[in-house]
Structure formats: structure tokens, C-alpha cells
Amino acid sequence: MLDKIEALKVFCTAAETLQFKETAIRLAVSPPVITRMMAALEDELGEPLFQRNTRQIVLTDFGTQFLPQAQQLLEESERLFAAGRHRHADEMAGLVRITVPDLPDEHAVLRELLTALQAYPKLVLDWRRDTVRLNVVQEQIDIGVRIGHLADSRLIARKIGETCEKIVMAPALLRRLGKPKDLADLQKNYPLAAVLNHNNGRADTWYINENLQFTPAKPHFVGSHIHNALQAALAGNAVSQQLDWMVAPYLSSGELVELFAEVPKIRWPVSIYRPQRVVTPMRVKVVFDLLIEILGKRFELPV
């Protein structure tokens, strides 16, 4: 089927150059493509557009009359598509509010996202660290990243990976106290680092697996953030439970050692979600898809 808009573009260019070879160079196609398209357009119109000889082409009377109409139609089609591009740009203007927990390479993730969004200068990101589990509706969250299971059916979610938590301590503390015999020994005889839950003000529970969990009853260190507990572990002040990606470099360097590595751990899903709305702005969908791609690479799961 003849692409009529493309054929008109070829015709107008050929009418300007009066050479099919030069037309092909300008449009980055082969000369036979130009010849075939002009023949198809002439067949469609039922009139010749050019008179040809071995050295040049010239417009026929019909071609001369047809040229301004073709140019006008191309200009109108360009305005039509330009309006579509402007409309898309307008749809990408506005605020997208994102809430995230601790993420691997968070600074690199944010930088990659902002780089990908440079084509949309009117788009504004509100990037929030989720130390308190925010109310998606009240806080007008557009996109979130969640570690753990999502029970809210009003959310559209994509799983991008999994993580687990590891119990770690510094080698110096291990040499001083020895290795705990079991979790009961750990709770009773070892200094533990606790992280306060901002939603209820109590220490977070250490979930090991479905059958093993406990809350530090008398923690040796209390912090408001998981990073605080990590520093306590690195300093040899306390034993801490940490997300695997946060302690991976310290386990590799020997600054921390893992306890109870043989005990099965809960695998927590990591998901990107957005509220299910009657109308979701294009800008939210674009950022949502970009985050799936960017974070999916960090977790090495197919997206």
C-alpha cells in the first residue's frame, strides 16, 4: 500500500532537485526507491508528474499544478503531528511524587532517572526517603518502592526483585564474645542494635523466617534508622540485622561477618507500585516504567 504522505514528501523534494539521485541522497534512500514511489504516485493520480530523459527530469503541467497542493498538505500534516508532540510535552509537565526505602546505589538510581527525564524540563520530581510508611492517598504519592508484601488491592505493582536480612557483627566483637550458640543465646548474651519503628515508636522485630522472629528486649544500641544500626555493627558496638545489599561490601571486605548464615531467611519481595486511579497522568506512567527498568537492573530480575 502506498504511503501517501511519504510519497508527497518524495515528490516535493524531487520537484526541488529535479534529480532522482539527489532526492535519494537527501532522503537517505536508494534511487530505485524514489523511482518506484514516483511511479506508484503517478499511478494513484492517473497522471504523469515528471517528464524524464537520460539527463534530467522536469515537471509536467499536471505536476506543476499539483505541487502547491502537495506542499500545503505536507505543511498541514506537519502542524498536526507537531500539535501531538506539544500535547505529549504538556502531559509530561507537572509533579511526580516518589517515595523510596533504602535502595542499592540510590544516588546512582536517582541520577540515571533524572538523566532519562532531561527531555521533559517541565516535569518536577519529589523524591522522598520513606522512613515512615506514608499513606499513599493522604500524601498524594504517585509512585513508591516497597520492601515486603503489598496487601493493598488499590495499588498497581510490579515485582522487581527480592532481598533478605542478615545478622552481622564485627570480627573484633566476635573474637571478644565468641559465636552465639543459637538465637536464644544471641538474644540473652549479646549486645543488639535496634531500629525504632517510626509508625509505632517501638523497636523493629527481627524476622528470620516464618518460625523464627524476636524483638530486641534490651538493646545495647537504639537508632532511628537502619544506617545507624549498621554503624553500631561496624564499630563493634552491637550485633545488627541488615538488608543484604547494605552489608554486602562489608562482608566482602571482612569488616563484618554473618551469623547463622545456614538458617533459612525470609525472601522479601521488592516492588514498584502506583495507585490505581481512574486517570493516571502520562508523566506518572513514564516515570513508573523508567524506575522498573532502572531498578530491575540492580536486582537482576527480568522486567
UniProtKB/TrEMBL annotation:
InterPro entries: LysR-type_TF_proteobact-type (IPR058163), LysR_HTH_N (IPR000847), LysR_subst-bd (IPR005119), WH-like_DNA-bd_sf (IPR036388), WH_DNA-bd_sf (IPR036390)
Protein name listed in UniProt: DNA-binding transcriptional LysR family regulator
Name of a matching Pfam family: LysR_substrate
Regions crossing the membrane: none
Domain HTH lysR-type: from-to ranges: 3-60
CDD domains: PBP2_CrgA_like
SUPFAM superfamilies assigned to the protein according to its UniProt record, in alphabetical order: Periplasmic binding protein-like II (SSF53850), Winged helix' DNA-binding domain (SSF46785)
Alphabetized PANTHER family for the sequence: HTH-TYPE TRANSCRIPTIONAL ACTIVATOR TTDR-RELATED, HTH-TYPE TRANSCRIPTIONAL REGULATOR
MF terms (GO), sorted A to Z: DNA binding; DNA-binding transcription factor activity
Family the UniProt entry places it in: Belongs to the LysR transcriptional regulatory family.
Keyword annotations: DNA-binding, Transcription, Transcription regulation
Signal peptide (residue range): none
Residue ranges of coiled coil: none
Superkingdom of the source species: Bacteria
